[in-house]
Structure formats: structure tokens, C-alpha cells
Amino acid sequence: MSLIPGIPRPRRLRRNATLRRMTRETQLRVDDLVQPLFVVEGSDRAQAIGSLPGQFRRNIDDLCREGERLFALGIPAVALFPSLPPERKDAEGSEALRKETLVLRAVRALKGAVPELQVMTDIALDPYTTHGHDGVLTAAGDDVDNDRTVEILRRMACLHAEAGTDMVAPSDMMDGRVGAIREALDENSFSGTAILAYSAKFDSAFYGPFREAVGSAQAAGTPLLGKAGYQLNPANAREAERELELDEAEGADMLMVKPAGPYLDIVRLARERSLLPVAAYQVSGEYAQIHAAAEKGWLDLVRCRDESLLAIRRAGAELILTYFAGDWARDQKRL
Ligand code: PBG
To answer: Domain residues for 152?
Structure first.
């Protein structure tokens, strides 16, 4: 006996696995995934990162092997982050402009080893500054010096392009940096180098494990890092939209929202307001929390991983930067 004749019964389409397969709306593909990788100097074995289980700081040789492995799994791109010893850092981040700095050697080696693998590199000063900020500071020392930072980032982007980076990714949130970097690249015959703009990057507490990985968490003797003066307020969606619009107008090739999971509304917004491809960065803390709960036996690692990635894709991201990329691709191959 039916309760009410003719009531809508959406469950009809969920009755068996084949029907569910037919009515599935969103598909995650290996082509959508970008693996972030950390690189260190030296010949030591890969160093595990405590708060990012399964992620390592690798030397250049190891990085190239990992790049080969990922590309063979179908991962199209990696994002590189250098982890430098304190003696390489100063208040100006001057290491960033050295032609032989670690990340540039890593890009050259990786493009030599796996030419088709697309390499993205961050354009920001935080791996290079003693204070860990993404830019240089004002004379008073109480703020980042926006315009002086942008000048440095322009030169940095050209060095990265020259080394063979396919996509530079300004992650600093300074005003006007996308336009300035585009102009510098074009003037120096790097018009083919794309810009993936960290457009809506929020002042998030979910970056914690990353800052441990690159050693930008807190320089000795300085107060805990605050980046609220340049990264977006997590309360602000309209302001995020404005940043997305500005970066598009300044010449970004792709827009990124970061973090991903807690900001799916912003991913959707970017998707609806722009015709550019939208990327989302599932950041270190999002990865760490799933791992931590799984270690305790409270969550199923693989199911939560897959659901978290699917949700980001469903919200409208066509590209996902995620520490799960390699593992996800490996598991697909096994199926
Ligand atoms: C630096 C940068 C950060 C991340 C990527 N690039 C950290 C920060 O802004 O302090 C975070 C990535 C992650 O947490 O996985 N500009």
C-alpha cells in the first residue's frame, strides 16, 4: 500500500548500483589532480613530515623519481615548494632571486626528467624570509611592503619562467601582483608562461602543517605569524569575489580558491562568475585532519579522502591541488 498515491519518489533512481552509476553527476578524474611536492637540499633520504603522513621533503634526485612515478600514474602536474635551512633566509628573502636557488634547480631537473609533467611554482617570499611573511616588510616593520614586494615577485616569476616552470602561482595576495607579473613575463619573452593566481586565499588556520613542512611557521623570537593584513578574512565572500575579478582582469589564466573544503561556496562563486578554469587547493590541514581521525580509527581514510575530493569537484573546481593526488591515482590503477 502506498502512503500517498503519486508522491515523488526520487529513491527509484537509487535502487541499484547500475542505476546509481547511470545517474552519477560528478566524476573525479586523475587529470584533475595536482600533487604538491616539497624539495630540500642534499643527498639525504626523503624526510617524513610529521603532520603530513605520507608526504616527504625530497632532494632533487628523489623529486625527479617521484615526478616520473606520478606522471606514469596519470597525474598531469605538480606544485613545488622549497624547504630551506634557516641560514639561507634573511629579512629580504634575497635567496628567492638567486639563479641557483634550490627551487630553480629542482624545476630544471624535473623538466629534464619528465618534460611533459606540468610544473607549477609558488611566487611568494615565505620560504625565503626569516620572519616567514610572503613579502618584505616596511621600514616600520609592522606590515608587508606591498609595492616593493611586487617588484621582487616580478623578477622571481621571470627566473622561474626561465628555469622552465609551466605555470607561476602567485600565492602572496599583494595588490596588483598578477598584472605586474604578467607584464614582466611578457616583456621578457615569457608570454607562454601561464599564471595560476591564488586569487581567493584566506587567512586560514588550516595551513599549519605546510608551515611546518617549509619551516615558515615562526622565526625564532618573533610572535606567531599573522597574515590577516594580506590574506582574506574567512568571513568575506564578496571580497573574495572582488579578488577573483581583479586577478582575471589583470591577466590570470586560472583562478584558485584556497583552502578548498571549508570554502566550497567560494569555489562555486568562482565557477559561476568566471569563464577561466577554477582550481581549488585542499590544503595541508584538510589532509592532516582526515589522516589524524583515521589514525584514531574514527574515520575511514579512503572514503573520506574520496568524498572530500568529489565535493570539491562538485562545487565547480576543475583542478584540485591535493596531497592525496598520488595515492588517489595509485588506487584507481589498482581497481
Ligand atoms: C605560501 C603558501 C602557503 C601555502 C601554499 N603557499 C602557506 C601560507 O600562506 O602561509 C599553504 C598550503 C597548505 O597549507 O597546504 N604563500
So the answer is: 27-334
